[in-house]
Amino acid sequence: MKLTTPSYLKKGDTVAIIAPAGILINRETVIKKAVDLLESWGLQVVLGDHVFTQSNHFAGSDEQRIEDFQKALDNPNIKAIWCARGGYGSVRIIDHLDFNQFMKQPKWIIGYSDVTVFHNHIHNLGVETLHAIMGTSMQDDIAIINESVETLRKAIFGEDLEYQLPSNQNNRVGVVTGQLVGGNLAILASLLGSKSQLNTTDKILFVEEIGEYEYAIDRMLFSLKRANYFKNVKGVIIGDISKVKENSTKWGMPIENLILNVLPENIPVLFDFPAGHEPDNRALVMGRSIELSVKNKQKSNIKFINE
User: Fold this and answer.
1) Catalytic residue of the set 50, 67, 90, 113
2) Which residues are CB-neighbours of 220 under 8 A, at least 6 positions away?
3) How many CB atoms lie within 10 A of CB 257?
4) Which one of 103, 183, 286, 304 has the minimum C-beta count within 10 Å?
5) Where is the catalytic site (predicted)?
6) What pLDDT score was predicted for residue 93?
7) What is the tens place of the pLDDT at every residue in 194-231?
8) In the predicted model, is pLDDT for residue 25 greater than 90?
């Protein structure tokens, strides 16, 4: 089923920056850079009332974060919602949000990491979302994140997205077409059994992760496997698997082998897509059909299909 594409942005449109999860204490300067970026593109910006509020671990209480998100969902003048950061907390508010007005006038939901909760839930509602940098990403050197910033701009303004990726000997070659779904591995595993769980049949799954032990990555992948995430999937894209922790007992194999051992042998698998928790974090339109061409000695290719 083709998903609904929210309206692309144009100059003069308004973007809301909200914090649905972790705190933003002492991040005012970074968020100001995010505001400046959007304004340099000719967009207007509004901040959620509780963006810089702190309630222990969270950017405000659950009720305050729900309020900011709901206002942005319901306001017809807001054309996109850009999450300021992830962390943890989105799952605490997802079931309290009313998407009725959003479904009448879909708008872009933008972010990664903990925002995977919204990507998956909204995919099941039938609307595309955008896996891309967040407001706090502007803390990184602009020279390093320039490509990430540019792909965000292209995505929200409706320009074509296509990626050429360096060869990787661990890639499993193949050419497939399908809807792109997925996000952060830990979040995908945490959503199993809920109404935000994905149906990956005939789709292409993207995963990324940070700061986990190899055994934990293996466990989460097997959780997805037992939930049939890989049974009828058409292909898998592996983003950044960053800052893998060392266990006292050696795992005994590279992370690429760990991943390949869980996945079916008859599907293409692409490693090293630049998206996840590293500064180079290219935009991905979740729910959009892509053409995935994976090679292991030549450049691979991902092309988003604009229908």
Assistant:
1) 113
2) 185, 186, 188, 189, 209, 212
3) 11
4) 103
5) 113 (nucleophile), 208 (charge relay system), 277 (charge relay system)
6) 98
7) 999 999 999 999 999 999 999 999 999 999 999 999 99
8) no
Q: What value does the mean pLDDT take over residues 145-172?
A: 97
Query: Position of tokens 């594409």?
Result: 5
Average pLDDT over residues 108-113: 98
Q: What per-residue confidence (pLDDT) applies to 205?
A: 98
Query: CA of 264: how far to CAs of 67, 140, 234, in Å?
Result: 43, 37, 10
Which is catalytic among the residues 67, 196, 277, 289? 277
- Tell me the torsion sign for CA atoms 248, 252, 254, 260: negative
Spatial distance between the Cα atoms of 287 and 4, rounded to a whole number of angstroms: 9
The half-sphere exposure of 6 on its side-chain side, counting CA atoms within 13 A, is 30
pLDDT band at 71 (very low <50, low <70, confident <90, very high): very high
Q: Does domain 14-157 have CATH number 3.40.50.10740?
A: yes
State the DSSP code for 228: T
Class of domain 162-304: alpha beta
113 tagged catalytic: yes
Report the DSSP beta bridge partners of residue 183.
207
Mean pLDDT score across all residues of the chain? 97
Residues with Cβ < 8 Å from 202, sequence gap 6 or more? Answer: 178, 179, 232, 233, 234
As a whole number of angstroms, the distance between CA 173 and CA 267 comes to 8
Please answer whether residues 282 and 151 qualify as being in contact, where contact means their C-beta atoms are separated by less than 8 angstroms: yes
Place of tokens 């995430």: 229
CB 300 within 8 A of CB 270: yes
Examine the residue annotation and report whether 123 is marked as an active-site residue of this protein.
no
> Is the pLDDT at 32 greater than 80, yes or no?
yes
Check 208, 209, 212, 214 and give the catalytic one.
208
